[in-house]
Design goal:
With 364 residues, the chain is of the alpha/beta class. It is 44% helix and 13% strand. The mean pLDDT is 93.
């Protein structure tokens, strides 16, 4: 069992509590195969094994490369001898009525989860935004940012580190590093599509440097955008065609539902680089607080992550708590430069999904 004490998982299996106070879990407990409601730990099974067959230790794994034909075990599900069924689903609490109470609940949940992180062997992935800055402000661990020299993330990380009175270690991306990392990411994650590789690139290369510097754990601010309304498509609901929901809260739940697939990719990429991810903003207590937020505490006009920014104001300078950030693949320029490499290799933009074709050529 990864991520949680087996007794806690067994109790959650009996009670059906989807948020039993853990940071996620996946594995076997009392003869059942389980994965938490947000899929925070990867889990895979052999595709061809019958649903009526009890899985032995060679037919499931946390690492897909251990299996002949792996498929992802669905989040929130349990598998026993009688088959696979959903056991947990994301709760739908009513929003907290009082604004200040809701913000205080977020603050307490976030600070408690971060402060509980052990710092032995720990480094922090630091982009200079509010999510990673909260980790940097409350944990005594070195900061790392990956990006090309002229990238937004490198400049944002430097300026935020100055405001926090600390330093950040720069992992300077290069074309050679990208060409080396792409097939390693693809093999570890089982994914060659351009977006998946672009997102994983700065994480993987930062983690690779972190591991070479002697650290085996990497803290990240993952989950904050999904939980607290950080995406433009959530802010623009229901007008944005990328979401089906007709409210901001509905869109929040929609993007939270995308986390199992995203986290699986990121965890596998980071482990392949030699570190274990640490994600305190994805603890059950933070998820519970986020789900109770009303729409105007997620998005208010042009401001996203309203409650999280307000909760962060006691730990961070306003200049950091209020700043926006770019997605890592764009802020680091990894996406731009992977596209450039694809075109230099003859995969032109007029071709169908030219970057994915380029990735596949590197894997082959």
């Amino acid at each position: 069992m990864q991520g949680a004490d087996p007794d806690t998982v067994a109790d959650a299996l009996d009670s059906g509590d989807p948020l039993p106070g853990t940071g996620g879990f996946a594995g076997e407990v009392d003869g059942a195969l389980v994965r938490d409601v947000l899929g925070r730990y990867p889990l895979f099974v052999e595709r061809a094994v019958s649903e009526e067959t009890r899985l032995d230790s060679e037919q499931w794994s946390h690492d897909p490369t251990d299996l002949d034909d792996p498929i992802s075990f669905p989040a929130g599900h349990v598998r026993t001898e009688s088959g696979t069924r959903q056991r947990w689903s994301l709760p739908s609490p009513e929003p907290s009525g009082d604004r200040e109470t809701a913000i205080e609940q977020v603050r307490e949940a976030v600070e408690t989860s971060i402060d509980a992180v052990e710092t032995d062997g720990l480094a922090i992935a630091f982009s200079g935004g509010v999510d990673s800055a909260l980790l940097a402000a409350r944990l005594d661990a070195p900061l790392y940012v990956a990006g090309f020299p002229d990238s937004h993330d490198v400049e944002a990380a430097r300026s935020a580190a100055d405001l926090l009175g600390t330093e950040v270690r720069i992992v300077e991306l290069t074309h050679d590093a990208i060409e080396r990392a792409v097939p390693e990411i693809a093999r570890a994650t089982g994914r060659t599509n351009a977006m998946a590789v672009q997102i994983a690139l700065p994480l993987y290369l930062a983690a690779d440097r972190v591991a070479s510097d002697g650290f085996d754990r990497l803290a990240l601010g993952q989950g904050a955008d999904e939980l607290f309304g950080g995406y433009a498509k959530v802010a623009k609901a229901p007008e944005d065609p990328r979401v089906e929901a007709d409210t901001v809260r509905g869109a929040q739940r929609e993007v939270i539902a995308s986390l199992p697939d995203q986290l699986e990719r990121d965890v596998l990429a980071l482990r392949a680089a030699g570190v274990e991810p640490v994600t305190p903003l994805l603890h059950d207590r933070v998820i519970a607080a986020a789900l109770r937020l009303d729409g105007d505490l997620l998005v208010d006009g042009e401001t996203r992550k309203v409650a999280l920014r307000a909760a962060a104001s006691e730990s961070l300078p306003n200049e950091i708590a209020d700043r926006d950030k770019k997605a890592a693949q764009y802020g680091s320029l990894a996406a731009r430069e992977l596209d450039r490499l694809a075109r230099q290799a003859g995969y032109k933009r007029r071709m169908d999904d030219h970057v994915t074709q380029y990735v596949e050529s590197l894997v082959a």
